[in-house]
Amino acid sequence: MQASPTRSASTASLGSWYRENARDLPWRRPEFLVEFGAWGILVSEFMLQQTPVARVIPHLKAWLARWPSPAALAQATPAEVVHQWANLGYPRRALWLHRAAQEIVARHSGDTPRDVPALLALPGIGDYTARAVAVFAFGDRHPVVDTNTRRVIARAIHGRAQPAPPSRRDLDDMALLLPADDAEAAVVNAAMMELGATLCGARRAVCEPCPLSTTCAWHAAGHPAGEDRRRRQAAYEGSDRQARGGVLRALRNAVEHQLPAMAVIPEWPDATQRDRAIDSLIADGLVEAQDDELRLPR
DNA sequence: GATGCGTGGCA
DNA sequence: TTGCCAAGCAT
């Protein structure tokens, strides 16, 4: 399917809206790319995977101050990396980022790759992150689809309140919205994400200032609730994830206070669950067992 | 395609 | 308070 006049009009208004309304975020500033290059974008995208923007910003600055290049991070130990990750959540991302840095050094001469297949081959990088780096760091033309983009497409294009579960077809939907020019396509990618993050929210949509409101299928239909096929998040209280988080928090705390790990492992109501959490952390490489003692991995 | 995987703010 | 939500990825 080729570009329709209606769609062209929509994306054109998106670009001007973005240039006037985009938030001033660190990784969008020209000096950020000058100082840290594509590596800075890659690190920001790792941290932004499922972690809110406001929590990422201070951690990103500290991380890049300590490890401003893939070569610098590649020389760190897993323990340093997991500790620096702190409370960002999903700490396996820290290990993946560390391994990605080592592979960039080993296989790409320390330069963050530009090609999507090369990016996809790095640990912790999937369809979203690979294209986000290629587009926002290198200016190439690819569809970038995250949870915000999916929601905006579901509403503006398909007239549904909520997107269907993530699918590779989402990339095709987004590709159809991209203008031919590389730089403009990057702006449209960013604008769709920005719309979902600001006006077109999961809980609430503010349509009056939206550049897509005049062509939005969901708006035209009167905001029907529709079917919600989103995956429900499992309860966190009392979960294995909470137990893993408690153990890892204790190990980070042990490092900071130079205490033996077992002295700071919190009492856990369910010892079986605590041991299962420790075993799974060891299996993930996030924790190391040595002489009946636990520690962050060397 | 469905699950497991952290953490904290907000309604 | 409880549940929802957040620039996803690997298996």
Mean pLDDT comes to 93
Structural shape: globular
How many helical stretches? 15
Query: Roughly how much helix do the residues carry, as a percent range?
Result: 55-70%
Write down the Rg.
21 Å
Q: Please list the strands of the largest sheet in the order they lie side by side.
A: 1-2
Order of helices and strands: HHHHHHHHHHHHHHHEE
**Low-confidence stretches at least 5 residues in length (pLDDT < 50)?**
1-6
Q: Write down the oligomeric state.
A: single chain
DSSP strand (E) fraction?
A: under 5%
Sheet having the most strands: 2 strands, antiparallel
Strand-pairing-aware structural class:
mainly alpha
Beta strands, count: 2
Terminal CA distance: 53 Å
Structural write-up:
With 298 residues, the protein is mainly α. 57% of the residues lie in helices and 2% in strands. It has helices at 5-21, 30-48, 53-66, 70-74, 78-85, 92-108, 116-120, 127-136, 147-156, 169-175, 182-198, 217-220, 240-257, 261-264, 271-284, and strands at residues 288-290, 293-295. It has a two-stranded antiparallel ribbon with strand order 1-2. Helix 2 packs antiparallel against helix 8 (127-136) and helix 5 crosses helix 6. The longest helix is centred in the N-terminal third of the chain and has 19 residues, at 30-48. It is globular. The protein binds a DNA duplex (11 and 11 nucleotides) through residues 44-56, 87-93, 96, 123-129, 132, 144, 146-149, 165-167, 193, 196-197, 201-203, 231-237, 239-242, 244-245, 248-249, 280, 284.
